[in-house]
Amino acid sequence: MEQLSTLLQRLFALHRFGIRPGLERIEALLHAFGNPHRRYPAIHVTGTNGKGSVCAMTASALLAQGYRVGLYTSPHLCHFSERIRIAGKPVAEEALATYLPSLLRQAERIGATFFEVTTALAFILFAEYDIEIAVVEVGMGGRYDATNVLSPLAAVVTSIDYDHEQYLGSSLQEIAWQKAGIFKPNCAALIGERRPWLQELLYRWAAESSSTPVAPSAIPTLVAATPNFCQLLRLPSGTELLLPLAGEHQRWNLAITLRLIELLSDRFPTSMESLAEGLQNVRHWGGLRARIEPLRLHPPLIVDVAHNPSGIAALLRALDEHGYSSTHWHVVFGAMADKDISAMLRLLQPRTAFLYACAPRTERALPPDQLVRLAHQQGIQQCEQYPTVADAVQRAYARRTPTLVVGSFYLVSEALEALRPICTESCS
Description:
By secondary structure, this protein is α/β, with parallel strands linked by helices. It folds into 2 domains: about 5-220 and about 245-280, 3-Layer(aba) Sandwich (UDP-N-acetylmuramoyl-L-alanine:D-glutamate ligase); about 295-420, Alpha-Beta Complex (Protein-Tyrosine Phosphatase, Chain A), CATH 3.90.190. It has 16 helices and 17 strands.
């Protein structure tokens, strides 16, 4: 049997096919394996920001209730197996090694992409492990995303904003249309976008697709926001619970999750006690790392996967809310060249004492020298470039100043790996 490391090398080599929207290749892969995605009910979640958090909260609450849950998210931060979680744990390496060889043979024959193969692998493993319900995060957009072979119980749109414009369109209406593609006949269409004109579009497209549009629950009330980035919340029912995630945007994600759990209640009833337990364990069971995650508190060292202007804005609002409005940060920053990096730097500028410019190990990343140039244009004068993310984050860590690591999943992944030997928190 091929070593898993060799199989993963073959899988990652499929990145050479790039991003190829369309469902014909994923449908061919799944058909070759007996259409495993039709053997269990599913929840399908898209959105520019927030979809990973809603997936993790929902899966964790269902798991706490005792259901056997499959969770599929992307990308991973430390290990490939994080993308496919069964009963709260990353899938075993033995399972990957068992199913990847035949799947890769099919994929290489038809020219399937990395994400298509990964999606097929998740759906196959969910069937083999006999899950009761799958919670599936869209990779990009929705309409032509490989995950859109599902006929879900509920399809969720968390938010609409500018991202991946070269694939999804240059206007918010075009991006919303792509995300509305996950609405299917006879399913609930849970619409979390808050701007009225976009809500109206999504409601109309949901009705046209013969799904039933519904709104989230009322947003929970903030009782207290702690310096360690937890929130004590009061639900509309009056129940109080602790959310170990920071920011108003996570309260909104919880409102979406509460409505989703309510929509599932006929088939998958879930108690308030299970919801509270699931939220307590959401980082572990849901693999929800690097969402304003403190690795150190004195002085603070925060990692966050915000990778577009709306994500950066939500991060900064959360820092204010949790008592860091006057803090100036040493910011380790790197981003993909196709992002609106100038807008991200413009938002960070008032809070940045020093910028460590670097580039994750991907051809999509903006080179550090260009990043420094953009930073200077946005008024960030205290700035140095570093050849690797590890060099940047280790230098920032050694200075023992308030440090923020942000810009992309790729950046945070490399930062966590670099911090593992020196920081009390590590990838697990």
